[in-house]
Structure formats: C-alpha cells, structure tokens
Amino acid sequence: MSRFFRQAGDSDSDSSESEDELMPSEDEAPPKPTTTAKPAMSRFLRTAGSDSSDDSESDEESDSDSDAARGGDDAEEEESDEENKPQIRILSAVDKRLKEMEATGKVMENALKINDWMAISNEFDKLIRMIQRQHNLSEPVPVFYVRTLVNLELSINTTLQKEKEAKKKMNASNAKALTAMKQKIKKALKENETDVKKFTENPEAFEQDYLNLIARDSAPSAGIPTARPGAAGPNDQVDEFTTVGKGGKVVQFTSESIFKDLQAVQEARGKKNTDRAEQIRILEILVGVAATSYQRIRVLLALISSRFDYNSSVTSHMPTELWLSAQREVDQLVSIVASDPNYSIQEITEDYDEYIERSPATEKGIVRIHGSIISFIDRLDDEFTRSLQNIDPHGTEYVDRLKDEKVLYCTICRAQAFYDKTSQSEPLGRVVMRRLEHIYSKPDAVVQALEATVDISDVKPAMSLAQHTTTSALVHSLCVYLYKSGNSLLRTRAMLSHIYHHALQNDFHTARDMLLMSHLQESIHSADVATQILYNRTVVQLGLCAFRSGLIKEAQATLQDIFTTQRVKELLAQGVHQQRFQVMTPEQEKAEKHRQLPFHMHINTELLEAAFLVSSMLVEIPLLASIESEEQKRKAISKPFRRLLDFADRQVFTGPPESTRDHIMQASKALQDGEWEKCRDLIQSIKIWSLMPEASTVKDMLARRIQEQGLRTYLFTYAPHYSTLSLSLLSRTFSLPLRAVTSVVSKMIWNEELSASLDQSGGVVVFQRIELSRSQQLAQVIADKVAAMVDQNEKALDIKMGGTGGWGDRNDGGKNEKREQTQERRGRGERTRGTRGGARGRGARFSQGLGNQMPSHTGQRGQ
Amino acid sequence: MAEYDLSKTIIPYLDRHLAFPLLAHLREASLFPTEEVIAAQYALAKGTNMFDYASSLFEQIYPGEKAPSEFDEKRTNAVSTNERLQLEAQAVLDVIQNPDVAQALRQDKNQNLQYLKDNYNLTLEQITALYTFGQFQYSYGNYTGAADYLYHFRVLSTDNDLNNSAHWGKLASDILTGRWDVALEELNTLREAIDSRTSSSLLASASANANNLQEPALAQLHSRTWLVHWSLFVYFNHPEGRTLLLETFLSPSYLNTIQTSCPWVLRYLAAAAILSRKAAAGVASAAAATPLSSRVRHAIKEVVKVIQMEEYQYHDPVTSFLKELYIEFDFEAAQRELTLAEEVVGDDFFLSEFKDEFLDNARYLISEAYCRIHQKIDIANLSERLNLSPEEGEKWIVNLIRETRMGADAKIDLEKNVIEINRPPLPVYQNAVRTQALGVAIARSGQGVPAAGPKTDQPVQAVTVN
After folding, report:
1. Closest by CA position to A44, among listed A149, A148, A134
2. Is the Cβ–Cβ distance between A143 and A206 less than 8 Å?
3. Which residue of chain A has the CA closest to B288?
4. What is this structure's pTM?
5. Residue B144, in any domain of the structure
6. Is the residue at B211 inside a domain?
7. Which strand (E) or helix (H) includes residue A376?
8. pLDDT tens digits for B51-110?
9. B457 falls within a domain
10. Domain spans, chain A
C-alpha cells in the first residue's frame, strides 16, 4: 500500500489526496459480526451507497492479509465519510439491484426482530432470486449477501435453540417457515461455501477485497480515457491511471490483493460481455504492482494469455502492438523463471490455492505454477506467421512486420537457453524446431542478422552462430539435436529442413543422399499437411539446387512430379487452387488459407517453372530429335513441356517472346533447328534468372549445356542427310573444343544412339544409316510390345505369388538378381530414381497419374 | 602418391593385427618416412601381447635405448595367463578330441551341451575357456592356435555374441595365417550371419566400442563395413577372389554399404572389375558355361555407374580412369589417369601384386572402347594412347585383334599404318529374334507354377546381341 501511495504521490498530488480519501473508506471494516449483524449492516449500507458508483461488483475475495492496509484506518475515517456523502448520483441498473437487495435485507432484519419467519422466508426467496440474477449477469456476489447468510444462520440457530426451551411455541405456520428457512439457508450456505468461510475468518479483509474489486471495476467508466491496449507499458498506465481518479474515488491495485484481482479477471475470461481490452489493462497494472516473483509470474501468465485472447476470430490476426507487448512479456516471464530456479512453470501441477502467496519457503523447494511457456512461444510464432499471412506482402507494413522476426527469434533463443538450462527435453525440442524453422530457408546474410541480435542479448542459447561459424553448422547442430530427441514428427521436420538447407547451400549430393536415406518419400503420404508442404518445398528446392549445380537431368526429374500435377502453387502452399469440378466448403477454404506460407518464405514459382522448362528442354529436345517413329513420339519424359511445345507448334504466328514460357518455347524451336546461339540468347534473356543467386554462373552453365545439347540435336536431326561430317566443322559450328565434340560424339556412338563411327585419320564422323522397311519397323514394335507384356505378366504373377521370394529358388541366377537389384536399389543405389518417386506431397491426390509414368522413367534411367 | 594411399582410411576398419601387414607394406613401399611407419607399428604392437615384436620395434626407433621394463613384466604376466588358460582349455579339448565324443556330437548344440554335461561334466563356462584361450593366443600372434580353439568353441557354444566374436576372430586368424580357402569359407558364413540379421549387436564384440545401444540396422551397416574391409584380404589373395569380390560388392546391400560408409572401397571394386575383364569376356563368348551372374559380366558397367554417382564423394586415379574412359570418352584423359593409376595400384597393399595384370586389362579396355567407336585408327596414335611404343603397339594390336571377337571385322593396313574396322551395322532382325526366347520363358514358368495355376510367363533375359 505504501508503495502504491508513493507512486501516486509522485505523479500527482491531487490524485494522492483522493487516494487517501478512498483508501480508508475501503479499509474501514465493519465491526466483527458476532451475534447480530445490525451495526455491520448499517456500515455497509453507508459505504456501499457512497462507494459503488456504478459498475459491477466482485465476488472474489481474497484472504490476503491486510496488515498494512489497516494502518491509517481510524485517522482518516471521518474525513472520508464526509467526502463521500455528497456524492449521490443517478444509480445504474446494477446499483438499483444492489439497493433492492439491501432493502430486502432491511425487511428481513425487521422481521427477525419480531420473529416473523414467514416474512423472512419470503424476503429471502426474493433475495435468492436477485442473487441468481446477479449470477446470470456474471457479476460477482456482493458481500452483503454473504453477510446476510451468515447472520441469518446465526439467528436461525439461536431461534431454534430458544424454541426448544420456550414454553410457548410459535404458531404452526411460523414454525414451518422457520424450518423451511433453515433448509434454504443451509443450501445457500453450501453454494457460497468458500466465500462464507473466508468471511467468517476475516470479515474485514473480505470486505476490503470486495471493495477493491468494485472500485477497480468502476474505474474505467469513471472516466479514464480507455487506454490504447498494449500501447504503453504497465508503468505509464499506473501513473496515468492514478491521476484520473474521478469523483474522489480511484481504484488501486496492490500486491496484496493481486490474487483476487487476477482471479476475477480469469473468471471473466471467455464470458460473453467481458471487455478484453479492459482486462488486459487491468493485468498490465497488476504486473506493475506485483511484488514477488510468484505474483509476477502469475500475473504475466494471465496477461499473456489474455493478450492472445484479444482477437478471438480465426481470420484476422493479432495487432502488432499487442503482439509486441506479448513478446516482451514472454521474454520477461522467461527471464524471471530462468533467473530464479525456485519457480517452475509446468503444464501439470498439483492443485494449489490460487489466493495464497507462495514462495520457495512455503513450498519447501520449488514452487510449481500452472502454465506453459512453450505454448506461449508457439502461439507467438503462429500469430507472427498469421499476421504475415494477412498483411499485404507488397506494402511497407509487411517489411516492418518482418523486422519483428528478430525479436521473436530472440525470444525463441532465450526460451531455448532456458529449457536447455533446466534440461526439459520435450519443450526444448519444440523450441529448437521453432528456431530451426526461422532459419532453415534463409540465406546466410539473414541468418547472420538474426543471430547477431541473439548475440547481443544477455541470454544465449547453447547453439549459436558465433560458436559454429557457418549457418550450415548451426543448422546441423540444431537438427542433430532434434534427430536425437525422441519425437518422430520433429525428427521428420528437422530432417526436411536440413535437406532444404543443404539444397539452399547448393550441396546437392548431401541433400539428395539425406532425402533418399531418410526414406521419407515412402511415408510422407501419411504425414500431416504441414509436413507434406515442407516436403514439397524441400523437393522443389532440391530440384532448383540441382539446376543451379548444372545437373540438368536430376533437376528435371526432381521437378517433374510437382509440375505434372499443375498445382504447383497449391502444393507449395503459396496460393489457393481453384478446383474446377468441386467447390470447397468454407471450412476447407479457411484451413487452406491458414496453411499458406507467408510471402517471404515463398519459392518463386515463375523461377521454378523456368528452371523446370529449361531443363525439360535440354532433356527433351535431343530426345525428340532422336526418335523417328510416331509410336515412340508419344512417350514423353516431360509431359508439361511436351504439351507446351505442341501448343507452340500449332501457333500460326509467333510474336516476339514476352513471358518466360514464350522465351523457352522459342528457344526450344531454335534448338530444334540447330540454332544454338539464338536459343542461348533467348534463354539468357529471361529476366527471372536474376532472382537466382549466382545468376551469371547459372547462365554460363546453361549456355554450355545448350551447346552440347544443340550438337546432339543437330546430329540426331541431320545424320540421315550426311554420310560423313567433319569434327572440326562441328566444333566450329557449336563453338566447342574439338575434344568436347569428340567426347560427345563418342558417347553417342558408344550408347548406340548414333549409328556411326569415327575416322580418326580423317577427323570425320562416318554415318552408317540403315533404312528400316515398314515391316521391319512393325516387327520391332511388336517385339517391344511382347516384351512389355511379358514383363507385365511377370509383375502380376509376382503379386499373386506374394512377392519375389518364391521365385528366387526356381530361377537361375541372372534374372532374379537383376530384379532384386532394381528393387533394392530403389532405396538408395539408384538415387535419382528414388527422388522421382518422391515428390508426391499431397497423398493420394498427388499420386494420381503417377503410376503410369513410373515404368518409363525407370526404363529411361536404366541406360 | 602418398595422397592416394588408403592405408590410413582403411586401418580404422581393421583389427589391430590385420593392420600389421599393411604397415609392413608401407614400410617397403616407402611412401612415408620409415621412422614414422615404424613408430606406428610400435604403437600398434604395444597394445598386443606380442612383446618381443614390440620391443624389437622399440629398439629400431630408439637405437641404443633399453626397451621399457614394463614389457618384461607384462611378458611374465602373459606367460602365466597363458598357462592358466591353457590348462582350462585343455580339459575341454581332451574331452572333445575323444573319438567317442566326436561321434556322439550332433547338429543340435543344446543337445550336445547336455550330452557333454551328462557324460563328461563339461559346463558352459569351461567351454567359454576355449574362447578365452583362443582370444589370448590371437593376442600374442599364435593365429593357428587361435583359429583352432575358436573353431572348437563355435561348434559347441550357444552364446550368440561370443559366437559372433569367435567368427570374426577366426576370420582374422585365417587371414593372418594365409589359409585363403578356409578364410573364404569363414567369410561366407560370417556374411550370411550378418545378412540374416540375427543378432542386434553383431559388431559389439568385434569392435572395441561395444555400442549395444545402436539400432540393429546401424549395427548391420557397421558389421558390413567391417566385413567389406576384411574381405579385401581374402579376395585379393584367393585365386577366385576378384570374381567373388565383384559378386559380393555389387550385390545391392553391399553396394549400398560401400556407397554409404566407405566409398574408398570403390577403388578395389573398380580394380577388380578391370582385372576380371578377361573372365567376363571369356564367359560371354563361351555362352555362359560357368555360372557367372550377370552382375559379374556387366561389372564394369555397374561399377562405372556407381563411380559416376559417388564421384562427389570419392575419386582416385583408378576410378577416374574408368570415368574418363566410359563416361567422358576422353581417351587422352583416360591415358593420363592410367599412368597415375598404375603407380597407385603398384603402391597399394592389396593391388600391388596385380599391377601388371591391371595395366594389361586396362589397355584392353581402352583399345576395345577405341575400336568400337572408331572406324579407322592410326596405329601410332593408338599405341600412344596405350603408353606403348609403335612396335609394341602394333604387336599388341595384332594380339588384340586375334583374341577378341573383332577378328573378322578389323584389318590392319600396313601401308597407311592404320587399322580399319568394318563393323556391319546391327541387323534389324536381331531385335525381332528376341521374341524367340519368349517361348522358352513361358514354358519354364509353366513348369514353375503348379498345374492348377494360371498360365504365366516370365521376362526374357535379353539375348546379348553382339
């Protein structure tokens, strides 16, 4: 109390005066109700009449001892009375009810005097009804009621006593009413058992608490400009608040009454008419007055949750200011708990009394408090994501908001340090995962910036960038921690993030090995949607990585699956896909929206498409050139690319290229015609490459590939028209060194793609062309088909016979081993193949239409 | 050449005793300063019970100084332990070597145990003495004795872990005594044991770090890695070894092991593939007279694929040679790598004996690939490719033409000093002829399936078209 006064006095003398006036009026306790309640009643009436200006009452009374509060009671009593009397105002509905109750009380008292139990019974019924109404309005039960209950019980007991001794009995109806009354009182007492107990133990404190509550509740309507929630820290709030006590009556919060205030707020939480902003404000003040760690922890716990409650609707996000203060408070909470190991916040605790101040001394050891920091952090992070989802990504607001990631990251790191210190593995795993999610997809510079803020802060987690020097090492250590932790979901996500990070760092081989060895592609269908999205992102990033490293075939194969679905955006959670034939329910739509990634995490789909189409071009165009018959032409490696190419072919007139696709299509045509320079220029003029790190090296790499593939295409296309072709001419035409040309041609001859041979002395390629007759062609086709049929047949048999096991004994060596090989190697040996099967992110939906593609892939790979 | 030396990589996967031959080889090869090698040998020997050897090494390092006295102390200790253990083991051995007992022993180990217990009062602990004694003998270098005792122990014991350990011990003893046939047998049984995944801690006793907490899969990977390394001893010394090496290492599970945990073994895989070229070619022409699996026949193709895949992890001249030859078709680079590879092979502990054979086969591979691609080849040029002088080259080429199936197609034009290769293009009928084999396949699968079963057929092994 004294502290509070000091604060108030500092800020404003006026207010301190009114403060003084008020305090006693509250502190004045009625004489202890012993045998009769009369004096108490009248005191109460007076105080209530003058004090409860309008708003609701409290039902919560704390038992906190008010030793300090009793201090100046007597001295100030009169003053306050005088001051309060003139304050008669129009009564609000609530007050009216209160008055009514008091009137009833009076009638009862009178009836008691004349021993008229009938009247008492009637009045009591009325009172009960009124109290019931109070309940319905979610307003606290007034002290008055409790006191009446206690008094009535006493009177009834004494009356019954007297009855027994008395010679002259009451009349029948009166006696009946008395017994009925006894029952009712019993019931009522039971309902309000705790209050009554507290009241009888210490009426003064009880009343004072009650008044505190009333006063506080009424304060805002008494004219404080409703504070902008969360805008100011708790301290300003207190200052400001004390200045505006209106009508000589100011609310105060003291560390003594903190628990019941807290309880009041918590009771009101979630109820219909609760003003959330108001509650937050109250709690903010409470934080300011909280004296002990225990109080601070309790209030902070309540405050943070009510901040998160502020915005109940699912669609909108939490206001930034609110979020920021929540973040600060989480920080505060963590630092309190971290600095004092005697307090521990746990999700499961033994029941404890909410009203008692607890300390390590009273608890004999660690004070366990009900709550969960990790869920706050989760929530904080989620809210951050949600706000990013809702803010327009192209505005400055988004950028401003993004800057908050630093503090969030700091908070997460703090929590990690805390959990690390207290070695709580379960929340530590979650918090490490959160941290990982903030850095895995970011380029080095951003991670460095994030880590720099952590370095500055006082609390540092066990793993930091400074310690590991590179981001990869940091990510590695975070992931390794998660691998070791038992949680399989976290492990999966950590694994994917790790792979993503490797891919981002252009470490294709490691990333690919990890992806294949994790065998995630087999189980990802059963994972939750968020993990599937992460998986898709990882696979896509892996494809991009392969593209950047110049592994065109791998890039094409990796990106293939996701592009055949034509729902790239949806699969990467970067946009909602409009389905043509089915309408999404609002819930689905909402869930879908909820899943979207914030804009800064997006993988640019246009870039992705460019990479995919270019690699498809490099794979597909030579292939197209190499095949002759119509039959084979239908087998496409990259269907989306083939479709686009066919479409471009049909066009009568082609203008200069505009979009990325146009560029690539025209480049493909140029490549088909052997004009590799034009192709190169078209590809290099695609603007989207600038988004790719090391754009220039990628362009150079592409140019080289285009040269090689151009040479191949040229050879395939024009071989029938030459009988010999000089290597030096080829080398000049495609600006490739002679050795490279020889190498490419040799490779084609070796692989029997080109029926030719080299004449070393002449430096020429000699073509040996065989024209197939129609019947020969057909014979070949039928041979292929029969072989395919046999293959299918065998597969069917395998399924029927229950796996390959049965076959092993009967077959002689070769065949069986070959088959076993292909099966076993799918896991790791033949890695790219594994990847190909992999990218089916969205379970069944995704995998549709993949089945018929698989064989052709495998065949293609096998060469 | 020291940078291509694998000893340092391999030794961690070997038993202490197995490392001795490697170090001895290094000393001869003089890749590293002799003092360092001796120091390493000494450090190695210190941990064993071979005190005489250790002290002699010590004298070599510090000539003139007296060997630490702890050796003498340890020696007396070891001798007494030896006597004690021998007594214990002898008791068991006496019983087992009794012809009556030998006859009475059956397949079932539990029954045997019971029998021994009933009739000769032999307990499991006593049998374990065999193991202990075997192990002790191994530790001071009496490998033959160790092999014997461990064998007897394994016949009797039912303890899985110890049995495994005995397996490894026996294998090591056999390798060190140089009984390659026995070692090969041992290797195969051990491989079966590992592949059958019986025990979760296969490796536990074999490796010093008994990591029983490891997952079974990981333990299996570890033991396979070890097996791969140990088997190198056997495979490069046994006459049939190279083929068997290909057979084993190219099987999916071991290929995966190599790719995952020890890519450097690819050198030996590549070398073996090159070395067994003749075997592969011979088989192909002899129409699969010997039951060589397709794995071995297409070894080079397979190996090249793996090398390409693992290039980012491991490459040395041997693997690069194959890569340049079969992936890049850069004959000049291949030739360069071959020169390097020749040295590497010469210095390698396992491969050094096969240096000439390796070179020979590698040349064959080069000329084969070269001839397949080219129509007219300048003999001088080809000789250069093969690191041969023109005369030698000509002789070589003539031999080549005579030996291989190019005989019909290739002719030497001495006037122009070129070889002309006239390879008729593939007749298109060959493709269609493949269908012939279908009938055979269908008939065979018809036999395989019970009479009531549906008529099915089987894939046709693509007839290798020459």
Report:
1. A148
2. yes
3. A814
4. 0.68
5. no
6. no
7. helix A373-390
8. 778 878 887 777 777 767 777 788 888 888 888 888 887 877 777 777 777 777 766 777
9. yes
10. 33-204, 605-767
